[in-house]
Amino acid sequence: MLLGAHNRTLNGAKMNTHYGGIADYAFDSTGTLPLTVYTGCCMKPEEANLAEVWNSHRASLIKVIERVS
Fold first, then answer.
1. Residue 22: is its pLDDT beyond 80?
2. Where do the domains of the chain lie?
3. 9 partner at 20 to 30 Å CA-CA among 1, 31, 40, 41?
């Protein structure tokens, strides 16, 4: 199952299983885990749409950053 119980979280390990990447390095080196946030259905929005995507999700993303800091 890719989506979590409330269909809000995605199990990345079931989507992309590879070892020895930057996430493994970060955890081994610093004990931290990277956080990936998808802001819509497109993993890589067109460059022309980046400002709109940022502005649409800015407040929510800043709240996440504040909570994990």
1. no
2. 1-34, 37-69
3. 31
